Amino acid sequence: MxxxxxxxxxxSGIKGAVVDLDTGQFMGDRIKIATxxxxxxxxxxxxxxxxxxxAQWDGPIGITVPSIVKGQMVxxxxxxxxxxxxxxxxxxxxxxxxxxxxxxxxxxxxAAGLAEVAFGEEKAKTGQVIFxxxxxxxxxxxxxxxxxxxxxxxxxxxxxxxxxEHQASSAVKDALDLSFKKWAKxxxxxxxxxxxxFNPDLFIVxxxxxxxxxxxxxxxxxKTEVIPAGLRNKAGIIGAAMAVTREISx
Length: 250
Ligand code: BGC
Known about the structure:
By secondary structure, the protein is of the alpha/beta class. It has two domains: 117 residues, Nucleotidyltransferase, domain 5 (2-Layer Sandwich), CATH 3.30.420.40; 107 residues, ATPase, nucleotide binding domain (Nucleotidyltransferase, domain 5). The protein is built from eight helices and 14 strands. α1 packs across α2. It is globular and about 50 Å long. The site of beta-D-glucopyranose (BGC) has 16 residues, from α3. Beta-D-glucopyranose (BGC) binds next to α3. InterPro entries: ATPase_NBD, ROK. Belongs to the ROK (NagC/XylR) family.
């Protein structure tokens, strides 16, 4: 069977599972450990190691980080410890997981977007699609007929003077205890700006809060169609696992 291990490093949890690369299904349980605070490279890599050990996995591993990843270098750190900036991620994870382990690193939203193309919504495969994840931050993957333009970071675009993710991430909803309706108004304003600047055919929204899309999707008023991700918040792990064997990492 064609399997790999995917790990999604998020602001609040680090999650991993064995993924069947033919179907995109998890094989066995998903393992989740709270993200260490501060989320330094060494602390995160040690947690990744713990997850891999718990799963008793000795094959290839794909890892997402909530950062710009170019080559093997991590170039940004909005919601993890700033000491990630400039880190050689291959050196870091090889040191923790074994020098001859096959490892791949990519941005979390890019991984999720690619997984959605492969195993999620059919509509993700064609046209100009902006895939967004709402979680601790707002992540983005720009997809053109299923092909990725990696490392777009429109969660940091200023909307009415403030970064989009500081206004409309799902962490902001929690922090301010906003109702779905009030939070959806903020998301709507952000999407309105994205629509005006990028004119996609479709927005697909992922992240944990996409599971509750029925509660907030109806309050959106933008012209462009918005649909929840077919894979909901599993996409990051699946995309991480896919990156290892399909050479789709940026
Ligand atoms: C980061 C992105 C990431 C997104 C979602 C943003 O703050 O800059 O790289 O994809 O959060 O985690």
